[in-house]
Automatic annotation (TrEMBL):
Domain of life: Bacteria
Biased composition (Gly residues): 24-35
Transmembrane parts of this sequence: none
Region (Disordered): 24-45
InterPro entries: BUG, Bug_dom1
Membership in a protein family: Belongs to the UPF0065 (bug) family.
Annotated SUPFAM superfamilies: Periplasmic binding protein-like II
Entry-linked PANTHER family: TRICARBOXYLATE-BINDING PROTEIN, UPF0065 PROTEIN YFLP
Organism this protein belongs to: Marinococcus luteus
Protein name as it appears in the record: Putative tricarboxylic transport membrane protein
Pfam families: TctC
Amino acid sequence: MKHSKYWIGAGVLSLSVLSACGSGGGDSSSGGDGGGGEEENYEPDSSLEIVAPAGAGGGWDTVARSAAEGLEEEGIVDQGIGVVNREGGGGANGWSYIHNQEGNPEYSFVASPPLLLVPLNGQSEYSYEDFTPLSNMIADYGAFAVTEDSEWDDLNDLFDDMKENPDDITVVGESSPGSMDHMQFAKIAAGAGVDPSSIKYVSAQDGSALTNLLNGQADVYSTGITETVEQVRAGDVKVLGITAEERLEGDTVSEFPTATEQGIEETFVNWRGFLGPPNMSDAEIAYYEETFKELSESDYWQETRQSYAWEENYMDSEEFEEFLAEEEESMQDLLDEVGIDRGGE
């Protein structure tokens, strides 16, 4: 591994980034030929920067750092790769930073459903349409955990009680209201007949969600599958259900039942992919498509997926953009069910 080229920053790092030929601020829309159609190939001639729009240790950060390490370890990218955390606004601060790099192909960021949900909630001026979809990489899934001694043993037990006494049950997550942890729970609960607008959701964006569950301040923890594994192994929590269509393979996670096997015909995919600034050229997009596809097919990425219980879900730029458009419509419908208006309208 080329450690001399692989650098990571937890804050704002200063890069001396040179724009490659043909990337200097074309005027086309996302996915168009921002370089005027003159270049046939693109190769970066300076260090690349991947932004994780949140603090260290979360899902975006893990994907960004894993990808950067894999691209270098597999010899896919020769340039140095920096991972920079730009947290705040549920991702909006990082998105604003990338948007300001318009036309510069040496920047990208990791995204997942909050890129759709946060703008729909009116909490960011930027949506996926303001960026250049490059490649989706994985599918991750949500998990709903309770303490090991909880009275509930499956999702139907929980949802039956929620139908009767919704005010007595607190669901905690680390995303903001109307964002991912809230919405994945709302979607599965609605599929079981719970009024999604009745869900008592509490946001613990300071990272205290699990603590709130364990000390009794919350009854249910809506999170990602990976975040529950060690606590399950320690005997502190049990997972009532996950949002995948089928059970996952792997130690511990294979024991987690799906919502669908409990008769709830709903799923929720926490996709994670990479987008770049607006107005990237076709050649620049093609470079990233090929780069991320090679990473997706590598032994390194296969091992990484297994270690985090991620599923392979590569999409090229066009497929990813079409998927995002469909997902945005689905997320808006779900927000309407929950009763969260766009921008407070």
